[in-house]
Amino acid sequence: MIWRILVCMMAVLAWTAPTVQAQQGPLRIVIDEGVIEPLPFAVPAFVPENGESAQMGQQLAQLVAADLIGTGLFREVPASAYISGVSDFNAAIQYADWKAVNAQALVTGAVAVSGDQLTVKFRLYDVFSGAELGNGLQFAGTTAGWRRMGHKVADAVYSRITGESGYFDSRVVFVSETGGKADRQKRLAVMDYDGANVQYLTGSESIVLAPRFSKSGDRVLYTSYETGFPRIFVLDVGSVQRRVLESQEGTMSFAPRFHPNGQTVVYSLSQGANTDIYTLDINSGQSTRLTSAPSIETAPSYSPDGSQIVFESDRSGAPQLYVMSASGGEPTRISFGEGRYGTPVWSPRGDLVAFTKQSKGRFHIGVMRLDGSEERLLTASFLDEGPTWAPNGRVIMFTRETQGESGRSTLYSVDITGRNLRPVRTPEGGSDPSWGPLQN
Questions:
Q1: Residue ranges of the chain with per-residue pLDDT less than 70
Q2: What SS3 class is residue 368?
Q3: Disulfide engineering: 103 pairs with which of 42, 129, 161, 333, CB 3.0-4.6 Å?
Q4: By three-state DSSP, how is residue 3 classified?
Q5: Exposed/middle/buried for 129, CB within 10 Å: 0-12, 13-18, 19+?
Q6: CA-to-CA distance for 408 and 179, rounded, in angstroms?
Q7: How far apart are CA 294 and CA 111, in angstroms?
């Protein structure tokens, strides 16, 4: 409820600098070509515009820096190297001083706190061309939403320099885990993309699995064992109200995902020894069977336009990845490498499929083109599984479990080049992440 209210209260205004004309400079990172040397940038503490905002100015600058550094594309110039600071948001930039410390990008900001109201302004400069990069922006909201404003500043900086949309002002739903492997308790939780602001959505009375955000981020599908059998539930994130979606007697339903239109759910249903893929119209409750094979068909995921489904099937003897029309029909196999493939997820950009691969005793998170070409394994460990895409299709989050009785499940992220592997800190163990959209 808290974060939904925040969305309603936050306002963002395009704000043109009074002394510098906005223009597009040459500063650019091309992600497709890979980035070996991170771009150096400086982000001095945001200028306090009243006595209450000094600490907030420091916190905002630190958050923006952490977001950018976490991409692996940027390197912060430490404050100890600064020749000149920024004490007046409207003062002319001393480009020579920032060039001397090799800061190629400069982020400046100002912050004002009045009671529980917060206003944040920022500008981005291309130091070596001596020009502002894009218009300044101003955000207004409550002090409780300061992290979101910092993430929005970082998203704008990232977008202007890379040409890609950002992903910092987003949420992730996941399974929070406590206890040993033999008596592990699981409950649904939602957090900021960086592990902050964790809120629990369910209790730990029954096992929950595989939460999946809707495209709009307002609902979550998941599987629960509270009835004794796996059943699909849908949960409203704002009200935390939930209801069962599928409960045919004598069956087990699991692995649900929303269609991009938010009105249809694709899932697996097991009856006897057979598992096939079905869809369910949320409004009418009408289900439709898409596959009819003696093999196990599971883990379906829609393409961004909703016209196709990628899924996992062992119809060839071992789990492999297949693509078929969203209305069913003969599927096409797309994975042919050595090992077992599973949990495919279509990129929001539509160009790649992320998957889990088990081969030679190791688990990997990988990506491939839709025709199965250009397979790349991004990680390797005792157990990596369950990839989910950032909203911009450039970063993947997944579960890593360590070996042994005391083994723990934690969340990691990695970019599509595989060169920026990072843990995502959560208060307890975590698994089954599902990345939501950018917030409004």
A1: 1-26, 32-35
A2: strand
A3: 42
A4: helix
A5: middle
A6: 9
A7: 62
Assessment of whether the complete model's pTM goes beyond 0.90: yes
Contacts of 14 (CB under 8 A, 6+ apart): 135, 137
The architecture (CATH level 2) of 170-438 comes to: 6 Propeller (2.120)
Note whether 435 and 301 are within 8 A (CB): no
- Angle CA(247)–CA(355)–CA(382) in degrees, nearest 5? 100
What is the 8-class DSSP label of residue 45? P
The alpha helices in 118-272, defined as continuous H runs, are: 146-162
Cα dihedral: 421, 427, 429, 431 (round 10): -60
Alpha-carbon distance of 191 to 439, in angstroms, equals 13
Structure tokens at 421: 């592997």
**What letter does residue 78 receive in the DSSP assignment?**
P
> Residue 227's pLDDT is what?
86
CA atoms of 382 and 233, how far apart (whole Å): 31
The fold for domain 39-162 equals Rossmann fold (3.40.50)
What pLDDT is recorded for position 34? 61
How crowded is residue 315: how many other Cβ atoms within 10 Å of its Cβ? 16
For the chain, the structural domain boundaries read 39-162, 170-438
* φ, ψ for residue 96, nearest 5 deg: -60, -40
- Number of helical H runs and strand E runs in the chain: 4, 32
Residues 6+ apart with CB under 8 A from 197: 3, 147, 191
Spatial strand order of the sheet with 395-401 comes to: 384-389, 395-401, 409-415, 422-424
H or E element at residue 58: helix 54-70
Which CA distances in Å does 94 have to 107, 113, 306, 408?
Answer: 13, 27, 51, 50
Q: In this predicted structure, what is the pLDDT of residue 406?
A: 80
Query: Please, is 239 exposed, middle or buried when counting C-beta atoms within 10 Å of its C-beta (0-12, 13-18, 19+)?
Result: exposed
pLDDT at 1: 32
Size (the chain), residues: 440
Q: Which residue reads 């060839």 in tokens?
A: 316
> Rounded to an integer, what distance in angstroms lies between the CA atom of residue 273 and that of residue 275?
7
Angle between helices 146-162 and 54-70 (to 10 degrees): 40
